[in-house]
Write a structure and sequence with these properties.
18 helices; Growth Hormone, Chain: A; single chain; 2 domains; mainly alpha
């Protein structure tokens, strides 16, 4: 079903894929900063509030595997519609929660819906976008995540200011419903279901494709860890060097703007020069930045490292999606992508506890250096193994 390069136009994906992805991301991103405050208001202590905030990630992990059967049964478009609607209902459960258990259930289910939505979208683009344009298309998809992550908290902060914390939950419901409405209004001919897989068991596919997963799969997971460490590490380092909160927020925002501005550049580099010329440099750049962070003790240095991390990260926009799409076998695309995504989601989920543990034992500078070692290992893995699997 993959289109030829002559017939494929990136704009064909704007309405059925990029717009609902952006809307879904806006809603989810706006909610994330609010969850701990809601849990605390219901009587949870700081530790419990943190656990509840992490239930979205847990829901994603739990649904990564079951999502395959749902998508194979319904097709990508219907699976995304149902995921958006179920996501809206799950957040409504949180809106009307009278205790932390109802709130937790809503957040957990919303994370599961994100998994279904993400896998359906990834599988659809893997099948329909020609190889020559794949990186640009997936880099643009990565840009929708970045845009949603910027707009969501901004809209959420405005909503809290004027209508209170509960309004952010309703905002998330509205954006999830809008994403579903866009998909529902998309003509089936404009987003045809891809050919179903052949019913392989997921664990059989994971075993069969274990060489790919244990090499480039782990290298992609290293990139997921490095990105999460960047998100967590910069605010922690600002606290470590006693940088004023307003200054830290401003500089992190500037760095985020650079990341967003350059997202499409990654796709152009990958499609023109090859995967490893984006994969290895982005991980190597992040590794060097993490190592250099231990030398930073003032605002200027903090800004420089923040920009260096953003520049490195921007070079790899959509890269994990591209690697997964490149490696996915034709006969078990969704099964492979589900396990590939499970590895990356697990890496993200483990990053915060790992940084906390390393900080307690060795201190924050060595914890950040540890993230640098992981990134450096991923860079070497990308450089060595991309050619091995004939990914140009």
């Amino acid at each position: 079903m993959t289109q030829t390069n002559e017939h494929f136009k990136l704009r064909h994906l704007l309405y059925p894929v990029f717009l609902p992805s952006f809307l879904f991301s806006v809603g989810e991103s706006g909610l994330i900063p609010i969850i701990p405050a809601s849990a605390e208001a219901m009587g949870a202590n700081i530790a419990t509030a943190g656990i509840i905030a992490g239930l979205g990630v847990l829901g994603t992990l739990l649904a990564d595997i079951p999502a395959v059967k749902l998508i194979n049964l319904l097709g990508e478009r219907k699976a995304m519609i149902y995921a958006a609607l179920a996501g809206a209902v799950s957040i409504l459960l949180a809106v009307f929660a009278s205790n932390i258990w109802m709130l937790s259930a809503g957040i957990l289910i919303s994370g599961a819906c994100m998994s279904v939505f993400g896998l359906a979208r990834h599988g659809y683009m893997t099948e329909t976008v020609p190889l020559e344009r794949r990186a640009r298309a997936l880099a643009f998809l990565g840009g929708t995540f970045r845009g949603g992550s910027f707009v969501g908290p901004l809209l959420g902060s405005v909503a809290v200011r004027f209508w209170g914390v509960q309004s952010v939950y309703l905002m998330t419901v509205v954006f999830a419903l809008l994403a579903g409405a866009v998909l529902l209004s998309t003509k089936p001919d404009n987003m045809r279901n891809t050919p179903p897989n052949k019913g392989h068991k997921l664990w059989h596919i994971a075993k069969r494709e274990r060489l790919k997963l244990s090499t480039l799969g782990l290298s992609a997971t290293a990139l997921s860890i490095a990105r999460t460490a960047r998100t967590i590490g910069l605010p922690l380092w600002a606290l470590y060097i006693h940088l004023p909160v307003t200054t830290a927020a401003l500089y992190i925002g500037i760095a985020g703007a650079l990341d967003f501005a350059l997202f499409y550049t990654s796709g152009q580099v990958i499609d023109r020069f090859g995967r490893k010329w984006a994969a290895a440099p982005t991980l190597f750049g992040m590794a060097i930045s993490f190592f250099a962070l231990s030398l930073v003790h003032d605002a200027t240095g903090f800004l420089v490292i923040g920009l260096a991390l953003s520049l490195s990260n921007a070079l790899g926009s959509g890269l994990i999606l591209v690697i997964g799409a490149d490696l996915a076998p034709k006969d078990a695309r969704n099964e492979f992508l589900a396990f590939f995504r499970l590895m990356n989601d697990s890496g993200q989920a483990a990053t915060a506890p790992a940084i906390s543990l390393l900080t307690v034992i060795f201190g924050l500078p060595l914890a950040m250096a540890g993230m640098g070692i992981i990134a450096l290992t991923g860079a070497v893995g990308m450089w060595r193994h991309i050619a091995r699997f004939e990914i140009s």
